[in-house]
């Protein structure tokens, strides 16, 4: 079974490295996009379990990309978490009113990101990913 996918949409390469490696270490597959248009196209192609979306990007910003996702029948059900360094303009309450699933202030606390992704998407792999009902990490039964 493949792990759940998280799509990171941010124009800052450091965010991709930090958040991507941390989420991969937690067991998630991670896809990357560097502006809103690329994020929208990637979401259509990969159908991630959750999207972490920076709100301020060149080309198409995170709000514009979110609106495209929400208007598209193929992507409107994908949870999107807003990432913003501008907490005066983009507070958590405003992000939730706009329809985002959650909000994390930048610089991002990696633990908060992992907790938010787990709360929204669940664990990276189901506990019975072995496919035979055996819990991951449990010793296999001897026949």
Using brief descriptors, characterize the structure shown.
single chain; alpha/beta; globular; disordered C terminus
CATH class: Alpha Beta
List the total number of helices: 5
Second rung of CATH, namely the architecture: 3-Layer(aba) Sandwich
Mean pLDDT across all amino acids: 86
**Using DSSP, what is the number of strands?**
5
Largest sheet: 5 strands, parallel
Going by helix content, strand content and strand pairing, the class is alpha/beta
| Spatial separation of the terminal alpha carbons | 24 Å
Number of domains: 1
* CATH level-3 fold name: Rossmann fold
Spans of at least 5 consecutive residues whose pLDDT stays below 50 are: 128-143
Helix content: 25-40%
Please give the radius of gyration in angstroms: 16 Å
* Oligomeric state of the chains in view: single chain
Q: What does the overall shape look like?
A: globular
Main sheet: strand order? 2-1-3-4-5
Strand content: 15-25%
Q: What is the CATH homologous superfamily assignment?
A: Response regulator
H/E order of the elements? EHEHEHEHEH
Gist of the model:
The chain is of the alpha/beta class.
């Amino acid at each position: 079974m493949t792990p759940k996918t998280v799509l990171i949409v941010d124009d800052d390469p450091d965010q991709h490295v930090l958040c991507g490696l941390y989420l991969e270490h937690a067991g998630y597959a991670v896809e990357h996009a560097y502006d809103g248009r690329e994020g929208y196209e990637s979401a259509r192609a990969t159908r991630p379990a959750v999207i972490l979306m920076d709100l301020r990007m060149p080309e198409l910003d995170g709000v514009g990309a979110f609106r495209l996702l929400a208007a598209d029948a193929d992507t409107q059900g994908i949870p999107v978490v807003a990432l913003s360094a501008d907490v005066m303009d983009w507070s958590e309450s405003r992000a939730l009113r706009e329809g985002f699933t959650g909000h994390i202030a930048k610089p991002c606390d990696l633990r908060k990101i992992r907790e938010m992704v787990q709360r929204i998407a669940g664990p990276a792999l189901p506990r019975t990913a072995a496919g035979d009902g055996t819990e991951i990490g449990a010793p296999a039964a001897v026949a």
